[in-house]
UniProtKB/TrEMBL annotation:
Family, similarity comment: Belongs to the CobD/CbiB family.
Lineage: Bacteria, Bacillati, Bacillota, Bacilli, Bacillales
Name listed for the protein in its UniProt record: Cobalamin biosynthesis protein CobD
Gene: cobD
InterPro entries from the UniProt entry: Cobalamin_biosynth_CobD/CbiB
Gene Ontology MF terms: ABC-type vitamin B12 transporter activity; threonine-phosphate decarboxylase activity
An annotated GO BP: cobalamin biosynthetic process
């Protein structure tokens, strides 16, 4: 079973890298979103919002796990290779290498041409902060932070859970992550209703986020600091991020590039002062965007190799017993 998972993960990894998510193709996340939206509109009101939000998350997970598990079982009944390929396709829908790379390049290209208005607009598609008045370094910061944070959320975390539970594990992870992205906000509307989704998302990302930050430091030497100091920055700054997991990718990226991430953002005109990640050795520039993409690619490949090593060791241990 572990070997099947590893094969499916590997096919999914390169399938997503080559093809990504073709526009207008059916995508499971759209289905997750419709179910979450349906339940949120009916339950996010009145009393017991926290309990109703937890129930919503459980229902979404139950539906996703049931449908995925049933269809995967049928695929394996047809033929093991059919089952592996079907799982690979499902897992590929949970990762976002190509779309993340393209989204970052969509900001980078107008920046290179000096088209700041277009760059700000493209950045607004991938971040929640206000972008209308950002200068070049702030546009770059937003893009690099997005790539760094989503290396875990969008690539390594679903692969990690695919090793644990195959396509069912990957789809369950993506369902939790989608719940969090839709209702896991600390505001009056979602503070209680999205509490369970946010906490569960923190739990399932805890291990992948830390492994991802470490993989980043293993695949590239820091450009403006010693390796030892880069590791110091990772463990010093990652825990300062308001999210228990997002800081690991950002701190590692900042340490390697010799830049400082984090700082002052505005959301709907409201100022948010985020913790700083890394030391400001050099100023952020447009060229840091392709460097962040390269770091994402290398770290993801190392993570895949680690999954293979870990998976084969687990399989050997199970067989030995």
């Amino acid at each position: 079973m572990i070997l099947n998972h590893l094969l499916a993960i590997t096919v999914a990894f390169f399938l997503d890298r080559l093809i990504g998510d073709p526009p207008n193709w059916p995508h499971p996340v759209k289905g997750f979103g419709k179910l979450i939206s349906f339940l949120e509109k009916r339950w996010n009101n009145g009393q017991n919002r926290k309990q109703k939000g937890a129930l919503m998350t459980l229902i979404v997970l139950f539906v996703v796990i049931s449908i995925t598990g049933l269809t995967v079982t049928i695929a394996y009944m047809l033929h093991p290779l059919v089952g592996i390929f079907y799982e690979a396709v499902l897992i590929a829908t949970t990762i976002a290498q190509k779309s993340l790379r393209n989204a970052a390049l969509d900001v980078y290209e107008p920046l290179q041409d000096g088209h700041m208005t277009e760059a700000r607009e493209k950045l607004s598609w991938i971040v929640g902060r206000d972008t209308a008045n950002l200068d070049e370094s702030e546009v770059v910061r937003g893009t690099v932070e997005t790539v760094a944070e989503n290396t875990s959320d969008g690539i390594t975390a679903p692969l990690f859970w695919a090793l644990i539970g195959g396509s069912v594990g990957a789809m369950a992870y993506r369902a939790i992550n989608t719940c969090d992205s839709m209702v896991g906000y600390r505001n009056e509307k979602y503070g209680k209703f999205g509490y369970a989704s946010a906490k569960l998302d923190d739990i399932v990302n805890w291990i992948p986020a830390r492994l991802t930050g470490m993989c980043m430091l293993l695949v590239k030497r820091p450009e403006h600091a010693t390796t030892r100091h880069a590791w110091h920055i990772l463990f010093r700054d990652a825990k300062q991020h308001p999210s228990p997991n997002s800081g690991w990718g950002e701190a590692a990226t900042a340490a390697i590039l010799g830049v400082q991430l984090g700082g002052v953002n505005t959301y709907g005109g409201i100022v948010s002062n985020r913790a700083r990640m890394g030391d400001p050795i050099i100023k952020l520039s447009a060229l840091h965007i392709p460097k962040a993409i390269m770091l994402m690619n290398r770290a993801s490949i190392l993570f895949l190799l680690i999954l293979w090593i870990g998976g084969l060791l687990i399989d050997a241990t199970i067989s030995w017993r």
